[in-house]
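Box S1 | Example of a co-folding query
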Amino acid sequence: MKNQRTLLMIVPKKNDKGKPIDDGLTKMVKFIIKFSKVDGHYKGSHECICGLKSGSAKYVLPNGMETNNLIVHYAREHRKDLRLYPKEIEKIINVYFELRKTIDVE
Ligand SMILES: [Zn+2]
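Box S1 (continued) | Returned holo structure for zinc ion
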C-alpha cells in the first residue's frame, strides 16, 4: 500500500500524447488540483517524457496525499499511459468524491 499517500505520481513511458481529452476524469482531476496547496519543494524538478516541466513545488491535497501539478496534463494528454495505472484512476475517483463530500459546492 505504499502508493496510498500519493496521487498520480506516475511516469508516462511512451511519448505518444494523444489529442487532449476533456471528459469526466479530466474534470475530476482539475477539481482535485484546485484544492491542493503548495507545501514545500522537492530537490530538483520533475520533467514529463514530452518535455513539459512540473517545477519542484510539492502539492498536497486536503486529505494529505502528495501530488504534482502535472496531473491534469497526464489525464488530458497522456491518457494512454494513465490507463496503465488502474489503481491511480481508482484513487482519482475516490479522492474526487471524498472532496465533493467535504467541500460545499455552491
Ligand atoms: Zn507530458
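The mean pLDDT is 88. The first helix runs from residue 24 to 34.
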